[in-house]
Amino acid sequence: MNEMRFQDQVVVITGAARGQGRSHALAFAREGTHLVICDTSRTYASVPYALGTQEELAQVAQEIEAMGRRVLAMDADVTDLHAMSHLVDTAHHQFGAIDIVVANAGLYSFGSTWELTEQQWDETLAVDLKGVWLTCKVILLANPRTYAIKAANFDVRVLARGSPCDHARNRTTLIAVAITKCWRCVFRIPQ
């Protein structure tokens, strides 16, 4: 029988209704974890594509349960300290300590940096940077041994050399990765 690498560990994944978040959640479930998944029903006027829905989040939860894993699925906005604190409190009540957090929630605004509106910039930074910070803050302060992961969705080659299509997400991802590295140092979390 295949040994599951993360058997019975508790993993929190933000932005889990679709895309990378959904993929991460299902992969961790296959590895034996119990999951706390969240996404927001909030809409962003500057985002030109459909965001994940609570129905999609519920579907991910059903797929995880079908694998025999426990799951908590909640509507939580990563930019809202109260919402994220409530998520962590509920997770603690149901599962106990959180072992891993994947700060995956993010927005993508299309266009060159100089063409983005202030609203696009502000909304992207709020989710992609503040969201990572708040997620790590509430989880790691309650669980100092949690392993923090920033799920990065960017092209490293573009970040390294620059591009006329640089956008807020590329820049915030670099800062978000630095935040998680700082948490690892402060809490002495193995890399």
Question: Secondary structure elements and their pairing?
Answer:
Layout: E1 10-14, H1 19-30, E2 34-39, H2 54-66, E3 71-75, H3 81-95, E4 100-103, H4 118-142, E5 147-150, H5 156-161, H6 168-186
Parallel strand pairs: 1-2, 1-4, 2-3, 4-5
Helix pairs in contact: 1-2, 3-4, 4-6
Key phrases:
191 residues, alpha/beta, Rossmann fold, five-stranded parallel β-sheet, 6 helices, 13% strand, disordered C terminus
Shape estimate: globular
Number of helices: 6
Tally the beta strands: 5
- What average pLDDT do the residues reach? 81
Q: Could you describe the 3D structure shown?
A:
- With 191 residues, this protein is of the alpha/beta class.
- The chain has one domain (10-186): NAD(P)-binding Rossmann-like Domain (Rossmann fold), CATH 3.40.50.720.
- The protein has six helices and five strands; from the N terminus they run E-H-E-H-E-H-E-H-E-H-H.
- The protein is globular and about 50 Å long.
- Mean pLDDT is 81; it is low at 152-166 and 185-191.
